[in-house]
Design goal:
Length: 483
């Protein structure tokens, strides 16, 4: 969570919806019905880039940024659209992702970088995204997702700004872009990426390895999801089988083998040196979740969400969901504190019934709460002024019965907002990746015991070191740990 976001992307998309053009697909040479010319594509990318930077944040490590950009530029030069100006950015997100906006804007999360083990694998991720750009998948996708986006944008005008329509729009658009473009487009991006790998001097088989990394993430998440009683996540969303058995993937990557240089170097040691010290998991500038406590060192506050609720920290808000998904608490930052918290509620919140205000300090901080019903749902809203900023806690439940069940948990979460204590500051430190060589006798179980990653530590460490679901470190081999 950093700051509330602007609504600029919404207007950008609405304007674009009026423009439709036919363009020649740079990869196939055929006419494609797309809604953008190349210059419009670049403009759209630029606009989206501002949003992505605000939404995700750029990972604060210029050396790493330069390194990733260098690798990306080398690949892009060999691509079908070498004339385009490419931009490669590491975004400050723990999620496992990479994505491309139209016009050559490509992003990789620090989250996925933790699981890659060589420069060739990094190049495979970037090459795949370049493939989406050169084949203009993102343009086609952008056009397709636009109709839906406009619906969301219009919807957001009807609800109070607190609900953040643009956030919904972004996640919708984001999902369309991130979760893939359908099997055929993904395979095409894999094929193009493999080709660019070969032409740049990497082994194109790194593409198969990367898909394997994503598949392992999926298997591991399915294992955790079973324990948590939730739906597992899908990466790439498409691969039913493990990539080793995926004949079409092997086929499209195999085409690039004939272009490969005889002695391709994966540049493993160079990559591992670059990611030594990389933040793993939540970052301190965005707040850290520890045992359902949300701790934000930068903004100086802490909050305790109900014990078994799922807490998700995104850039502009933190959302906690009850285990049954029938109750929700959202924490938002709403700009400079003016007047009193009660004034803020009176000015900004209209409930259908209720509206009664309760003013009381919360842990010594000026605060006010309001409860009632909005759009047939029970709600409770808490506003706290802290260090000249307005913090909002917005709690709601699916039904009055669910609200009653969560009432105490919601009230104590709102009542737990506090200035960060010194003892909590230690907990708010991020976990970092360390790269070194394995010592004799080290096992993933022993490494897991020393790591701060909790009950799934062994799985994470195995995934990070390409040793999932079994396998142990060999003395002298490269090893990543989290400390
Ligand atoms: Zn893709």
């Amino acid at each position: 969570m950093i700051l509330p976001r602007a609504f600029r992307l919404v207007t950008g998309l609405l304007c674009l919806g009026l423009l439709a053009n036919c363009a020649v697909n740079p990869v196939t040479g055929r006419q494609n019905f797309v809604m953008m010319s190349e210059s419009e594509e670049v403009r759209t990318g630029q606009k989206g880039d501002e949003e992505v930077r605000k939404e995700y944040g750029v990972y604060d490590n210029p050396t790493l940024q330069r390194y990733v950009n260098d690798v990306g530029q080398r690949l892009a030069q060999k691509s079908h659209r070498g004339n385009l100006e490419y931009h490669f950015t590491v975004v400050d997100s723990p999620e496992i992702n990479a994505f491309a906006l139209p016009g050559g804007y490509i992003y990789i999360t620090r989250g996925i970088m933790a699981y890659l083990n060589s420069e060739a694998e990094l190049a495979a991720v970037l090459g795949h995204e370049i493939g989406h750009v050169t084949a203009r998948h993102s343009v086609q996708q952008y056009s397709a997702s636009m109709a839906a986006s406009i619906g969301v944008a219009l919807g957001s005008i009807l609800v109070p700004e607190l609900r953040g329509g643009a956030q919904d729009l972004f996640s919708l658009l984001g999902n369309a872009l991130l979760s893939g473009y359908g099997r055929d487009h993904e395979l095409e991006a894999d094929r193009l990426g493999a080709e660019y790998l070969a032409l740049t001097g990497y082994d194109p088989q790194a593409m198969v390895k990367v898909v394997g990394i994503l598949k392992d993430q999926e298997l591991f998440d399915a294992e955790i999801a079973r324990g948590e009683g939730r739906e597992p996540r899908r990466y790439h969303g498409l691969f039913a089988t493990h990539p080793d058995n995926d004949t079409r993937l092997k086929e499209v990557v195999g085409e690039a083998d004939r272009l490969a240089q005889p002695k391709a170097d994966s540049r493993q040691a160079i990559y591992l040196t670059q990611i030594n010290g990389l933040v793993f998991g939540d970052s301190p500038s965005q707040g850290i979740v520890r045992d359902n406590r949300f701790l934000h060192d930068g903004l100086g506050f802490g909050l305790n969400f109900p014990p078994d609720w799922k807490v998700k920290n995104s850039l502009d808000r933190v959302v906690a969901l009850s285990p049954e998904n029938d109750g929700q608490i959202e924490l938002l930052l709403a700009g400079p504190a003016r007047g009193t918290p009660a004034d803020f509620l009176r000015r900004n919140i209209r409930l259908d019934t209720g509206n009664e205000l309760d003013t009381a300090l919360i842990n010594g901080l000026p605060a006010a709460t309001m409860s009632g019903v909005r759009q047939n749902k029970p709600v409770k809203i808490g506003v706290i002024f802290f260090r000249d900023q307005t913090f909002i806690l917005f709690a709601t439940a699916k039904t009055p019965a669910a609200y009653n069940q969560h009432r105490t948990a919601i009230s104590s979460a709102i009542g737990s907002f506090h200035a960060l204590q010194d003892s909590e500051r230690k907990l708010a430190k991020p976990n970092l990746i360390h790269t070194r060589t394995a010592k004799r006798g080290e096992t993933f179980a022993s490494l897991a015991r020393q790591s701060p990653l909790g009950k799934n530590a062994e799985g994470y460490l195995r995934l990070m070191n390409h040793a999932y679901p079994s396998g142990e470190p060999q003395a002298g081999q490269h090893l990543k740990t989290v400390e």
